Amino acid sequence: MHDDRALVEARLARALRERIRPAVYARSVPLTVAAWHAPGEPVPFAEAAGQEYAPTAAGEPWGPPWGTTWFRLTGTVPAEWAGETVEAVVDLGFDADRPGFQCEGLAYTPDGAPVKGLNPRNAWLPVAARPGEPYEVLVEAAANPLIDYRGYVTPLGDPRTAGTAPMYRLARADLAVFEREVWELARDVEVLDHLMRRLGTHEPRRFEILRALERALDALDLQDVPGTAARARERLAGVLASPAHASAHRISAVGHAHIDSAWLWPMRETVRKVARTAANVTALMEDHPGFRFAMSQAQQLAWIKEHHPGVYERVKKHVAAGRFVPAGGMWVESDTNMPGGEAMARQFVHGKRFFIEEFGVEPAEVWLPDSFGYSAALPQIVTLAGSRWFLTQKISWNQVNRFPHHTFLWEGIDGTRVFTHFPPVDTYNSDLSGTELAHASDNFAEKGRATRSLVPFGYGDGGGGPTREMLARAARTADLEGSPRVELHTPEEFFRAAEADYPDPPVWSGELYLELHRGTYTSQARTKQGNRRSEHLLREAELWCATAAAHGLAGYPYDRLDRLWKRVLLHQFHDVLPGSSIAWVHREAERAYAEIAAELEEIIDGALRALAGEGGGTVTFNAAPHPRDGVPALGAALTGEAPPSPPAAEHDGTYVLDNGLLRVTVDRRGLVVSLLDLVAGREVLPPGAAGNLLQIHPDLPNHWDAWDIDPFYRNTVTDLVDAEEVAPAGPGAIRVVRAFGSSSVRQTLRLRPGARRLDIETQVDWHETEKILKAAFPLDVQADRSSSEIQYGHVHRPAHTNTSWDAARFEICAHRWIHVGEPGYGVAVVNDSTYGHDVTRQPRTGGGTATTVRLSLLRAPRFPDPETDQGLHRFGYALVPGAAIGDAVREGYHANLPPRAVPGGRAVPPLVAVDDPAVVVEAVKLADDRSGDIVVRLYESLGGRAAARLTCHLPVSGVQECDLLERPLPAGRTPDPGEITLALRPFEIVTLRLTPA
Ligand SMILES: [Zn+2]
Questions:
Q1: Which of 189, 277, 404, 729 suits a disulfide with 465, CB 3.0-4.6 Å?
Q2: How close is the Cα of 374 to the center of ligand 1, in Å?
Q3: DSSP assignment of 402-440, as one string?
Q4: pLDDT for 712-740, tens place per residue?
């Protein structure tokens, strides 16, 4: 037998592309088109429908970047189409090579009911009009620019720079007969073609399919595809009916659309994207009874509710029927590296509460396919939120190391384990092609021990979600020889089956570090500062409002705090907080953070004044969980004038600060050349090294500019050692001014009285491109690991590069502090707004190894925001010599929660107090159910055991341990209200609800 395989495959490809697919709409008539170009931002249907529409036609341009054009399409279904299925085909000018990320539309009936979205690979509308009847539809078309995320400098990411030239041409607006048999034939051929190409050439099945396809082509009249499609399909029935192998991999296909809440478009466009996709999938449900769809991110459903009530009604109906499935339980699919502990918890509190209140549904899985690494605090947080399962697939993007498992138990810092799945299909936007299904099966690492994986399918980000074509593929691969078995499932159905299938999965302990996108800890510094500041203002607002309310001095602003929390949570979305969105998004985020801060400052101020009462004294409030300068933790004291710091002493151009605890020497270059710890009697810097050294590296990664730092950045470095000015700056302070490149920096180094901490305030006027700015502290400690604060605890990471896994963590995320040490002595670096750090080891003059901690202050990528981080910035950080982990924890809180002094007449005893400094109070608030109960969340912060007594300033009649949603835990603690004692295990989080007597 001659081998003509390539010839037949090429014949098949051409017939499918040029004859079969186009024949689905072989008969069509054009619709009459009129357009109204909305002058600015999107408007509601009622406003758009009443405008003057001007005639236009297919082929005409429309849509300046970010503009909206409304098309009115009218026509009459031809009488000769009686008995046919008629559809409208509307191609807005789609690039079919890209399923989303470009122009999109939402169609409405003339009376404003949403019909269905229009997307690049989903450009049809159902037509109910009968032959001879008129048809009319309005399409709200969005001219979203296609911003190529593979990275180049573009002005399109902000309407201020994007220009006004139309970007799209209306390509087609027709009424057409939908040739169902041709469409089915196209699906038969696609499925068999994909399957065939993934089978080995040694397998008989491959050739059985090849010959069946050849016979089908022979049966097809290319001049009359509609008339011969059924005959061709008969030739394929046999190979399509052959059942799957007994050992075939089992795939749970979960309908989904990954919609970034903002990214290469602003949030207002996501409001429309989610409505289009929800309109599509609810329309698809009407025609496909077995189809279910999982939608994550409560915020997106809240947007549909607010802005598209007609779509929301359809969503609610299908949720009630169990077909539209609220998934994931989070407010948004947030980043998990940077949100603080309380914010990470509130992602679940607000997400789950929305799903419970709106739909009566509580998701048990966490759905985070696409954020950039997963904190080791998550297993405990997830469990305390009442969830059982975790899903992501992003770790498949690792640059270096292949993650060993696809299904496993993920163990967090406190030892909690969560059943976790990484879909081996390696995408969260599958189209259920045979190629992807085969990859899932081939790639699945648990083969032989487990049999099933999950495939999320549907076009995301404006692609419109799952399509009828995908459902057709799923139906054909349910039981097909050579293919994995595909079943349509919900996330819950998958996880229940997967747990039963794999009772003894392997364990992965610690963080799921993503070996990619390490620049996201640093890009868009103002967005990150806004997040950090907002989190601490929310803590203060809850604490002081709860304290004032419990004493009957003020009401508790439930609604305002709820709204402010949700706004902060939204901005933790995994392309906003990480700094990977277009300029428009970050400009709006900065404005949002300014508004959030202003409102929270007002709320805090009101509570403080109510608490401080009348009087001419100064009342100093301490929102930190540890006492400070005579003020109790979580309370306030009447305070006097603080003693002044001694001035800097100058000798031969060198300045010395000395507060009796530390002696800091700053040379003519403005570098710290000696830092003597007078308490410990040791020099903190290694011999010959200088601290507070600012360093610049070139920073152009190979891909993903705002996301990535590639390791070669370190090969070139410029030390900023030329100072324009080094001078005293008031008591206990030295000012250092430098200029470099197109930028300048102004620093104040300060030693406060009684503080074993060198504070450094840094202002940078940053005008570099594709560079990274680091602040370095070489330290004379021999550390083989660093400790970094994460949510409710910390993680250890190796400081060495022994293995490829260690070396890949060359840039790491820390919250308020990072610590390095050796037995008996450690040093912490604390910050008020920085997340990116690196820790390295160097040979030490005189022997041994020294350790350098650096903060990553600024980057300057040019994609997707060409002006990333240009302009003025302010950073606060401090070096804390002689610090144990507990000192790092305390100083980290203090750096982010400065004391507040207000005029008044009385001290404020803490509403709650804890007698063990290892046990940290993270939140004090009133219960969300508005019962007046006080909710206290605390955790063990050192990674050891703790026994603590909690005292409440008010009499308490009941104490109940709760989950994060403030619901009693079935086996929770119920301490004696008169004597609240707690034994905590390492890093344990405890939420208590105290009922006032
Ligand atoms: Zn995403």
A1: 277
A2: 14
A3: PPS-SEEEEE-TTS-EEEEE--TT--SSB---HHHHHHH
A4: 999 999 999 999 999 999 999 999 999 99
Task: Report CA(371)–ligand 1 centroid distance (Å).
Answer: 6
Measured distance CA(438)–CA(195) in Å, rounded: 8
Question: What stretches of 159-226 adopt beta strand conformation (E)?
Answer: 168-169, 172-177
Which pLDDT value is given to residue 151?
A: 60
Q: Which of 148, 370, 677, 784 is catalytic?
A: 370
CA of 319 to the centre of ligand 1 (A): 24
Q: What is d(CA 320, CA 324) in angstroms, rounded to the nearest whole number?
A: 8
234 residue type, one letter:
E
Q: How far is it, in rounded angstroms, from Cα 267 to Cα 143? A: 15
Residue 851 in contact with residue 841, Cβ under 8 Å? yes
Question: Which residues face 851 on adjacent strands?
Answer: 779, 841
C-alpha angle 122-124-129 in degrees, rounded to nearest 5 = 160
Residue with tokens 């030239």: 165
Three-state secondary structure readout of 684-723 = CCCCCCCECEEEEEECCCCCCCCCCCCHHHHHCCEEECCC
Ligand 1 centroid, distance to 812 Cα (angstroms) = 21
The neighbourhood of ligand 1, an ion, using CB within 5 A, equals 260, 370
Measured in Å, residue 178 CA sits from the centre of ligand 1 at 34
Distances from the Cα of 668 to the Cα of 175, 688, 721, 944, angstroms: 79, 15, 9, 45
- 837 CA from centroid of ligand 1 (Å): 24
Question: Of 445, 556, 437, 414, which Cα lies nearest the Cα of 485?
Answer: 437
| Catalytic residue status for 370 | yes
Residue pair 343/568 in contact (Cβ under 8 Å)? The answer is: yes
Which residues of the chain are modeled with pLDDT < 50?
none
Q: What is the pLDDT of residues 249-276, one digit of tens each?
A: 999 999 999 999 999 999 999 999 999 9
**Taking a C-beta distance cutoff of 8 angstroms, is the pair 547, 924 a contact?**
yes
The answer to whether the predicted template modeling score (pTM) of the entire model surpasses 0.85 is yes
Instruction: Kindly give, in sequence order, each residue whose CB lies less than 8 Å from that of residue 404, ignoring residues fewer than 6 positions away.
Output: 445, 506, 508
